[in-house]
Amino acid sequence: MSQFKVFVTRRLPVDFTALEQIATVEVWQERQPPPYEVLLEQVKQVDGLLCLLTDPIDRPLIEAATTLKVISQMAVGYDNIDILAATARKILVGHTPGVLTDATADLTWALIMAAARRVVEGDRFTRSGQWTTWEPDLLLGPNITGATLGILGLGRIGQAVAQRARGFAMRVIYHSRHRCPPDLEQSLGIEYSSFAHLLQVSDFITIHTPLSEDTHHLFSDAQFEQMKSSAILINTARGAIVDPDALYRALSRGQIARAALDVTEPEPIPMESPLLTLDNLIITPHIGSASVQTRRKMAEMAIANLIAGLNNQVLPNCVNPAVYSWEQGTGDGLQGSSTTF
Ligand code: GLV
Questions:
Q1: Which candidate in 118, 164, 238, 258 is catalytic?
Q2: What is the pLDDT of residue 258?
Q3: Which of 89, 118, 167, 207 has its CA 20 to 30 A from that of 319?
Q4: Residue 278 CB coordination number (10 Å)
Q5: Using CA positions, which residue lies closest to atom 4 of ligand 1?
Q6: 175, 208, 258, 286: which one is catalytic?
Q7: What is the dihedral of CA 199, 202, 207, 208, to 10 degrees?
Q8: Residues 6+ apart with CB under 8 A from 298
Q9: Which domains does the chain have, with CATH numbers?
Q10: Who lines ligand 1 at CB under 6 A?
Q11: CA proximity to 249, closest of 226, 275, 268, 216
Q12: Contact 268, 244 (CB under 8 A)
């Protein structure tokens, strides 16, 4: 007989059989996420929650979750979850790092190339019947080969983006909270840079840092003013790292040349956003990890975290291991561990 109750906030590409051995599983069947009130009602009754980055798991919700033992997020980022509130209530939080590194780095490169070589504009141009001849100056963009790539945040995804840049003989500079060891810099062929220098010299800037108080609107008017007028900005991390109003000003005034975003603030981007009127901007709908294999692995990891948490075992990928030290009386339990992308 099932011992536990679990709520899963969306249909997932995974087999629930192993989970169903130990729990009664309710899966939200709609395309849109469950409304907040539904989540609130569910967390009052369940032992485990499997959620996505679209579910706001905030302090009031966590405080109402009296039976909840484990929150398992199917994503690497977890800025939608109040980790301190969960840790204070000894609720374990799991996530899915590592498996989406390559897929996200691949999409980053797809956006770098599409923005540089104006692929989306070219497609629109063709479909609207404007391709009437070969033109010497049609849809020109900058060289990628030999250009300077600035990577902000050198976690797993930032490193995978740097690896791919080697094939383009780029100069790669990076800025990160912590400078990485010299042997890693050497093997990736990258140079450490201050944030200001990175802004000033990069032809392409790609963002791979988590969203936090420190990185919220890190790209705003002052940063765009320092960038080259030919610069291209790519964001596949979190939308709120870029101030959307400042980005609109920078792109519409030609302060920077182009941008490509896989993430926006808010998500989804409202159809009335002025950003959608710009030809020098590409927007994709948060599909960084959207390869068939990656999404399947993410779902499997999320289920594995959930089962471990329900069975009082160590989560294979835990965001707040402080809960364990707190339970053992060896820590204050209030520190969430942080993960770099
Ligand atoms: C996607 O954005 C993730 O955090 O997994």
A1: 238
A2: 98
A3: 207
A4: 16
A5: 77
A6: 286
A7: -110
A8: 74, 75, 96, 99, 100, 289
A9: 4-99+292-327 (3.40.50.720), 101-283 (3.40.50.720)
A10: 53, 75-77, 100, 288-289
A11: 275
A12: no
Query: Is the separation of the CB atoms in 156 and 97 below 8 Å?
Result: yes
- Residue 328: pLDDT band (50, 70, 90) is low
Q: Measured between alpha carbons, how far is 286 from 284 in angstroms, rounded to an integer?
A: 6
- Whether 286 is catalytic: yes
- Residue 1: the pLDDT is 56
Is the whole model's pTM more than 0.85, yes or no? yes
The pLDDT tens digits for 37-82 are 999 999 999 999 999 999 999 999 999 999 999 999 999 999 999 9
Please name the residue that has the structure tokens 């289920």: 303
- Regarding predicted confidence, which is higher, 270 or 332? 270
Residue range 144-181, pLDDT digits in tens: 999 999 999 999 999 999 999 999 999 999 999 999 99
